[in-house]
Amino acid sequence: MNKVILEMKNITKIFPGIKALDDVNFSLNKGEIRALVGKNGAGKSTLIKILTGIYIPDDGEIIIDDKKIERINPKKMYSEGIQAIYQENDLVGYFSVAESVMLNNEPAKMNIVLNKKKMNTDTKKIFDENIGISLDPSSLIKELDVSEKQLVQIAKSLVKKPRIMIFDEPTAPLSAKEIERLFKIIRGLKESGVTIIYITHRFEEIFEIADTVTVFRDGKKISDLNLCDTTEEEIIRHMTGGECETVGKKSETNISGTSVMRVKGLNNEYLKNINFELHKGEVLGLYGAEGAGQVDLVRSIFGLNDKKGKIYIDGKGKNIEHPKDSIKNGIGYVPRDRKEESLVKSFMLMENITLSNLNNYSHRGIISKKEELKIADKMIKDLSISTRSARTIVNFLSGGNQQKVAIARWLTFPLKVLMLDYPTMGVDVQAKVEIYKLLKKIVEEGTSIIVITPEYEEIKILCDRVLVLKEGKIIGDLNVKDTTEDLLLKYAIGSANNGGNNYEKNIN
Amino acid sequence: MKKISISKTSKKGYITFSIFAVVIVYIIFAAPGFLHFDNLMNVLISAAFVAIPAMGLSTVMLTGSFDLSFVGIIGLTSVIMIRMIEAAIPIPLVLLCGLGIAISIELINAFLIVKLKIHPWLTTIATMLATLGLEKAISKAYFLTISDGFFGGIRFNSFIGIPLSVWILIIVFVIVYSFVHKTIIGLHFYAIGGNEITAKKAGIKVDLMRFLSFGVMGFCIWVVSLVYLAQLSGYTPEAAYTNLNEVILSVFFGMSISKRNIVTITGTLIGAIFVALLANGLALAGVSSYWIKLVEGFLVVIVVITNSLGSGELVQLEK
Amino acid sequence: MSSLKNNVLTDENKISKKIADLLVNGSIVIGFIGVIIVFAIKNSSFLSIDNISDILMRVSITAPAAFGVMLALIVKGIDLTPGTTMGLVGLTITGGITAGLSFGVSLVLSLLVGALVGICTALLISKANLNPFIATIAILFIGNSIEKGVTQGGLPIYIYPSPKPLNAIYRGTILGIPNPIIILIIITLVLYVFLDKSEYGRKMYACGESIKASRASGIPVRFYFGMAYFLAAICACVGGIILCSQIRSGQPLVGHSYMWDAIGAAYLSTIMSRRNFRPNVFGTLFGTLVMATVANGFTLMGIPFYWKEFAKGLIILVILMVSVMKKRYERRKTF
How far is CA B5 from the centre of its chain? Predict the structure, then answer.
């Protein structure tokens, strides 16, 4: 149990202008499950990229099973049995399960002629024996759901007989039941002697699955903690270095009784008879298990999903079928997916800021670059976006600054309602705080906000009221003052104290 | 090309199948000589002009690349071979040189596309123009006839009653089919075309595989240039260029009738045969020659379009 | 890391770096000027006003088609129909005149034919969600068939004498400037303003860059995709009309030879753009200019036509290589 399988000594990695890893010593014992935590940019992902051979460290050495690894490259690390399960889709859509699992490891006659039958039986065996779920080897990847795809990826790495497996935020897209299933598989892997590195932002998972945790901060390894004798508070202290700036709890705001938006009888494939009202100057949180309908609700209101039902803005019924209708009616939406949806990433900052409201900056269809630049500079100043200029391509900005740009584009014209989908996902603590401040400012200026977030802390900080969704229905309408995390969870996943059974109910 | 819902696929299959059936039944009734063995062989010979380069193109497209230059390379290879024969160089050496030229120009394409990462379209338009020009520079844009017995032999001889050109088509099909669908390398081609990063991570030598796929294309080009030389009894300027659209359409035809909606060698062959069959059958049925292309065009296009509905990027917009 | 050293070094030899920058960035233009000088030395009439206007008149036929392809590239597609559209337009005008219609009516008819092609591709791509490659090659195939069908397998339609207004399109002048050059300048400026200065162009680029993000910004994405292909056909239509006026006849499949020049020029604009592979008006115009210049220079030197084709291919390849080296150079600079 205590045999050291991996040792990384004095690892340093420098990128132009930044020390991503600073003299890090990291070692793993055979068969343990190690969690890695740290803020964004703390060095976790750089470490993983070095371990999988994508980056070459500037200094330091890697020793696997008492053997020093000489020339580090992806293939080398791969053949040393280091396997990473990434979140993004790492499969070929039109391949069958068997083809995906066996990729570049295909059973063949004379090393060249495919043996398709053996490919299927081998795949089936892996699923039955190591994963404990049977999946038809001939079904196509594109027909599978997210969690099944993840299982295929795990099976794929098992073929290569891994010694160390890295899971990078594997539970983000999964439902509670699927998470349980994944944890069972990970424990099974541990039993069979595989060492596991587990990266996550969710503390409850660390305590559930991991044995030990390594905390990173600013490119340095801060500590290795044994999870039996540490607490969440201690880990957080190590992550933040005790100098965490907080915004504090939501202060009492004056919510006037006037209704800005009323949603009546909203129905579609994922939503069942949604009714609620949003008041002027109110911040409404949407809470629920992943896939309980919050995202669909917001997208339906904005006109991205089909829907039946009525939406009233300032008491008048409006017909919203396309985002352009909602923009006309003063509704804005910041999607979760910054890379794909909330920004045109190859556009300049200023072009992104004006995109949803271009006709305000153009005369007879011709854009006034001067006015564009003016509003962009104002936004950069107001929101303290750190960028070289308004002409910077947004793709080159950091996650937090991109998010600010995505919000900024809705602040250039009078907005009644701003809807945000997990605005602080993947941004570091500093940027989080700034986004909270920004949202508060927006509310003070009279705009109402609907925000989806899975983090209870955020609801406490931001919201006045929270709607809890479950299976596409609103099952709780709570005043944030009177809620606790337990209460919210109780609504969202049945009864929080009552474990497994209710998880399943939630899914089915 | 990749995103398509499964339930629709089978419905599309029926449309294709019924168009197929109606057309063939019509031709059989309207053109009595159609089912005659010799006529069917003629169909296959004209299919060979399209099918052989189309199979090569399919291989290149599998790895997510493209090639337009084959029309020029076919001409260039043919004209160089014919010039060599005129210079009384022995046939085996001529054939070897032809193969070498076809493959090496394709490898130049591969180098530009794979190593220098230039857009395949731009690259191969350039090499297409260059080879088309070079082809005519060598032939001075004249027809060149061939007197050698070897090519005459291909045209007029048969084996077990089947003309040698058809045998060539069959052999190339078997070779390319087994290579693409039965070997590990073929599967890796598909992996690269489907998700290059995945393929790279799995340790597949992506660049090498791409080069190999262009090599297959070169091989197909060489073979089809032999068929051109034999069947046309010599070299006709830009002969292959006139078949460019048919070649590309056959590949898409094959893709649209495949179950997973991907390029397959069998599908490509069926596409090429379908095009040849239509032209032949309609001519026999007495459709005036200049409307054949139109009818043919409409039918092929209907099949391709109905089968590839939803193949564009805009599918993302479906709510 | 070597990159860090590079950053230190760059400060020391600024002047040489600036010169290198200039050489690299302007390399394609410098090369083009070089080619012009060679042609001018070989043939004294190359730089004459007449010859230059000849080149530009040839550009005026290819450039509109190339602009069409460029529009398709902006929405991350491809348009294979410009040649077909040009051919159909020519046949419509000459066919109309032969059938006894007035020139004006035939011209309107030809514009309608062009618009019809545009509407077909636009609907196939934006409404039926077809892959643009498949959609446009399908139209190309049908269009070619129609061209052959209506001309009984490819017989050209000659009109003699050709109506004065048709003649005037290519051969007339305004203030001493040939009409086609004026048309070229107008269409270039209109497209430049449309794409680079107007909100519609901005939105079209946005749709091409990210379908989802554009929709979430309230842009009707399908409309802009359709518009790109519709305008592409209209552009090709303009090229077809000028071509018809030049050759005073309707030649089936005549557009084919312009298609590759058009596609090549449009792609060249992407590698020459200052912003990451962005198709643009002036790059496309430059591309067609290069091709026309080479063709013209070769003709003046009395070199057979097939070497022209060869040289065109070679020149595209050279430009490609240079742009690759340029990109590498720039990458080294940024790190």
Answer: 28
